[in-house]
What we know:
Distance between the termini: 24 Å
Number of domains: 1
CATH architecture: 3-Layer(aba) Sandwich
CATH superfamily: P-loop containing nucleotide triphosphate hydrolases
Number of strands: 7
CATH class: Alpha Beta
Helix content: 25-40%
Number of helices: 6
Bound molecules: guanosine-5'-diphosphate
Order of helices and strands: EEHEEHEHEHEHH
Amino acid sequence: MSEQQNIRFSDAFFVKSAAKLAQCPNEILSEVAFAGRSNAGKSSALNCLTENRKLARTSKTPGRTQLINYFQLGEAPLALVDLPGYGFAKVPVAMKNAWQKELAGYLEKREALCGLVLLMDIRHPLKEFDEAMLQWAADSEMPVHILLTKADKLKRGPAKSTLLKVRKATARKDGGVSVQVFSSLSGDGLPELRKVLRAWLLPQPDTQDSEKGTNSEPNPGKETSGDGF
Ligand code: GDP
């Protein structure tokens, strides 16, 4: 691994909450957004990734739940972005529409955005919100890495079969979608996730082609990554 690829995820710190695209920080040049329905395990995954149990609490602070939360990775102009999901039932329709508009604007127009991590509870994948996110990403040709979270809740066989089913259902012609199983509880899948994030945030000129990914393996490369089994 080259020196450049050495992102330290544990250096992540909260920088700001943006209510709309125009408020997103200019100093961030590359970012990866994390999205998921409420309870998908996004806060737990971000905390696991950054080895900071308090990090993603920010996004759950009342009043901040409709915002785009930025976590910068140390001194580098790189960030993880927490796009708060919400339970559709709890949100008034007007707020839901306004937030969807901001979210769509962010996904389609934010230049620093280089990839989307979409989290789904492995027991409840591909709900309406997930399909909408996948559609936006496909329209924008944005790479997506799907985390099937809480994998520790399923046995190996059912987990593998969900993985295969989701891979098949989300396959994109440009190979822009990859899928893995993940557990914040056990840390299963963490190296695979970090590898994808490094490849997106710090692409190496000579590996660009292999980083586009295929639907059968995580985006950055086939040789060392498995399915988490
Ligand atoms: P968020 O709403 O998407 O941020 O979801 P949270 O990270 O708050 O997780 C929702 C619930 O799922 C909490 O009770 C977590 O403890 C639980 N959870 C999250 N990740 C895992 C996991 O990997 N395994 C298990 N067993 N539970 C998890």
